[in-house]
Amino acid sequence: MNKLVSKSSDVRDLQGHYALITGATGGVGQACAEIFADAGMHLILAGRDHTKLEQLRATVQQQNPVDVQIVTGEIGSPATAEHAFSRIRSIGTGQVTVLINNAGVIVRATAEETSNNDWQQVMDINLNGLFYFSRAYAQQAHSDGAIINISSTCGSVGSAGLAAYCASKGAVNQLTRAMALELAERGINVNAVAPGAIDSPMLFSGHDTAALSDSVVAKNEANIPQGRIAQPQEIARAALFLSQQRHITGTILSVDGGYTSA
Ligand SMILES: NC(=O)c1ccc[n+]([C@@H]2O[C@H](COP(=O)([O-])OP(=O)(O)OC[C@H]3O[C@@H](n4cnc5c(N)ncnc54)[C@H](OP(=O)(O)O)[C@@H]3O)[C@@H](O)[C@H]2O)c1
């Protein structure tokens, strides 16, 4: 072995470690659960709907012999993250090695149309909840792990009609960079994945008829250089890749078919 290559330069071996996934019941969350379990990770699935979380646990465990724990609660409440991490300590799983901050919501409104409640809801779920989970993770006081924030192309480029969503994801990108610096000495990598349009329920929210669903896909595809929207698994694989890397931190990884390069 090259003497200059220390052990810490190896790719992080995640097998047998725990990943906590917020928004686990959604399109990207489920894909993360399946792909991280395929990589041999035990899971803590966080969400609001206990029945859906139980169904996901059964699906994952049919495919892989991994431990799957469930925590429920509103992501926008600081108590949910505290409860999740204290539950993890109490069931003796040790620590969370990988945190996937994935829960999110979209409000389709211009700034002038956005109500106080809608603004607050988007900030509570997309930004505040992500902050509460990230802070609780950092307070575990351990080294060698990863936080992956699921951001959006809307974090770096504007999108008319998505004012609150863009603001929340821009803030996620900056929190990613700041925490990457704060946790660098402990060997904790903090990165974000920035997807463009994904074939998952969020894309179709507010476009409930078949015709509207088709048109939202066509509209998005027309603006993506590669001419197609992403599958949730492509976002999950990017999150897994970043979770394994020790020398990538503070990065916002675009997974958008070239959308933000145009
Ligand atoms: N879909 C896209 O086109 C797209 C594009 C770029 C970025 N993203 C980002 O990707 C991430 C995942 O989105 P997705 O496409 O998988 O969306 P999704 O299928 O709608 O899933 C969203 C997840 O967030 C959870 N969630 C929403 N509000 C919550 C709350 N108050 N408390 C706890 N959990 C809550 C949902 O739980 P319930 O099942 O209980 O509702 C669901 O599990 C989000 O951060 C999103 O902003 C999505």
CATH-wise, what's the superfamily of the largest domain?
Answer: NAD(P)-binding Rossmann-like Domain
CATH architecture of the largest domain: 3-Layer(aba) Sandwich
Helices and strands, in N-to-C order?
EHEHEHEHEHEHHHE
Class based on secondary structure composition and strand pairing: alpha/beta
Q: Proportion of β residues?
A: 5-15%
Q: List the bound ligands.
A: NADP nicotinamide-adenine-dinucleotide phosphate
- Fraction in helix: 40-55%
The beta-strand count equals: 7
Cross-sheet strand order for the largest sheet? 3-2-1-4-5-6-7
Give the count of helical stretches: 8
Distance between the termini: 42 Å
Mean pLDDT: 93
Globally, the shape reads globular
Tell me the domain tally. Answer: 2
